[in-house]
Amino acid sequence: MEPMDPLVEEFAAHLRDERRLSEHTVRGYTSDLVQLSGHTGGLRNLGLAQLRTWLAQLHAAGLSRSTLNRKTASARAFTAWAHKRGHLSEDPAVRLKSAARGSHLPDVLQASHVQGLTEAASQMRQAYERIKDQDPSGWAVAVRDEAILELLYATGVRVSELAGLGLGSVDFQRRMLKVLGKGRRERMVPFGAPAQQALERWTAQARPVLTGPRSGEALFLGERGARIDVRVVRRVVDTALEALGTTSARGPHALRHTAATHLLEGGADLRAVQELLGHASLATTQIYTHVSAERLAKAYAQAHPRA
Q1: Residues tagged active-site
Q2: Is the pLDDT of residue 191 over 60?
Q3: Quick one: pLDDT at residue 284?
């Protein structure tokens, strides 16, 4: 394996220690910059032409606009930092343009889909309860997966935020979740009775089955007893959504999109949804108003006699 460019290591330390970004975010930046460094043969003489060539090759390889924009953002953040620190004589990414945003809106589940999702998870857990003595770990995982699905939809938290939760993050009495979000900003998020029941079943009955030396205070655990990995959470959600057979939505973010859209459709205030989701900008939350409007237009076209 190629040694990492020392500049990338220094930048990663800056993101982690000074900007206090999550490890998940730091890994994303690092991965993009390692790829860029491999393309250019190093980052100390990085120029605009090299950046444009790198992004053009990625575009030709079929990467989506959102992925290209993320990589552009990584390059911009790095070059601004490197110029400020004196590693680059100028900031070449200042003139770098982002890919034009598409009109794609987030996949959103219907209420019936969410009900089917949670009912299937409940049925799976009940099936394992019947063979709990023969397969206690399988039962514990089924209980955990049900709690994960309920909590993701109930709160709209990011997958990294869910994986980072501790036992002390849950206030069962007030039904509130203490979440550490992007930029290490803390927020309180409410959850409902179904999520509470699933969480209590997990923490009181099933979590002790998986607990081991590496568990610590992590709320959700993997099968080997360590804090659950975000990839495991994604797999849990993808498997559950695929089993529905009625939606193309995939991944924990689909549940986040769905929670936000259903809240707005139910009359929630936009700023309240912004706070719940942990968005730094209201503009980020406003995409869900477009999702709601699009769904309303479709319903009108299908149902109104003079549509």
Answers
A1: 158, 182, 253, 256, 279, 288
A2: yes
A3: 66
